[in-house]
Amino acid sequence: MKTLTVSVVTPDGPVLEDSYEMVSCKAESGELGILPGHIPLVAPLSINAVRLKRENHVDKLAVNGGFMEVRPDKVTILAQSAEKPSDIDIDRAERAKERAERRLQSKQDDIDTLRAELALKRAINRLRVIR
Ligand code: ATP
């Protein structure tokens, strides 16, 4: 089975580097499924899960923004944050979700609203990846 090297890097350092048969993620332009031999591309990523498939196993990561660079034998994800399920603190994500929801319910200016919406998306993404 052909594989791709997948490397995920954030400002805090490398998160993962391993071989997989397929990478699925949500780019801003829509769902992408990357197999070995894919044409080179660069795509901005949304706040979403990245699924990494190998044999009968799927590894998931909660990725927050950034870019993906695809080459035929390699996928590099450079993200603002990326966590494996085992590194996600559920309580922290639940607190962040509640905080963002409270902010969205109270009347605030547009910048704070956008910020709270993004914080809510990050928290929901983390909670989805672990459940
Ligand atoms: P919080 O309000 O709890 O800080 P956030 O969404 O604002 O959440 P980020 O700015 O996206 O946090 O991330 C800051 C750093 O904290 C990153 O290194 C990220 O991986 C880590 N992080 C954030 N939330 C969690 C979590 N629930 N579990 C584990 N790591 C987290």
Automatic annotation (TrEMBL):
Coiled-coil residues: 90-117
A Pfam family assignment: ATP-synt_DE
Membrane topology: Peripheral membrane protein
UniProt entry tagged with the keyword Cell membrane: yes
Domain of life: Bacteria
Chief place where the protein resides: membrane
HAMAP family given in the database record: ATP_synth_epsil_bac
UniProt name for this protein: ATP synthase epsilon chain
Lineage: Bacteria, Bacillati, Bacillota, Bacilli, Bacillales
Gene that this sequence comes from: atpC
